[in-house]
User: Fold this.
Amino acid sequence: MITKLVHIIIYEYSYIQLYGLTVLYFFLLYYGIAPIFNKVCIWLEHKGVLHKISIKEVTKRQKKMEQIHSLKSIFIFGFSILPILYLVRINRIIFLPDTFINSVVGIVLLTIWNEVHFFVIHRIMHIPFFMKYVHRIHHKSVTPTVYSVYSFHWFEALLLSTVPITILPFLSFSPMAVFLYPLVSILLNYSGHCNYRFGKGNGADWKLFGTRHNAHHSSFKKSYGFASDVLDKLSDNISQRWRSKK
Assistant:
């Protein structure tokens, strides 16, 4: 049933219809999950499980700004389906069967690829020119919130939306993996922008995820990775070795 529905959507829906469905999907991910995620964080804070990172009050003006830019980003994200749809219809992208294993493995691979993709784009965004004219929009949220996750300049949103098109022509995934990945991605995004963390900034590395990205928003440096600091450490390692050889 699901496979048949996917086939109908991919091959019988128009590009305009697919664009509209994609925009609606990202709209629901953002406006549907953000308030729920925020309330869960507040509840877990009351239970002593989570702790707020920055106690600075976030203004209504910031939240409004974040949602305006996020709405623009959502309309940009909608275009990401169009080249994928075209390549599927000319058999340049081949989907795997929608099995449980294919879906899980696909989501894991997309998560890993997104980590690499985001790190590269994020480093580019911190080049002075892009920082001044593009990435500054995201950094207006000095204290991030769940509504900061899509708050980008339109050009940055366009670059970040290229995650699937930069890997699907070269590696096959199940349609369900591609469909579910934005959900996994935004949940990780919420975790990094919600201004909450496990513990008080100490302990295992996975507990510091929110701390790292929170600090990045205020310091504008370090922690360029998405959900992991592996590429940050690797980059620092390479830089140190390069300097030591000079």
The mean pLDDT is 88. The CA atoms of residues 122 and 169 lie 23 Å apart. The chain has one domain: 2-245.
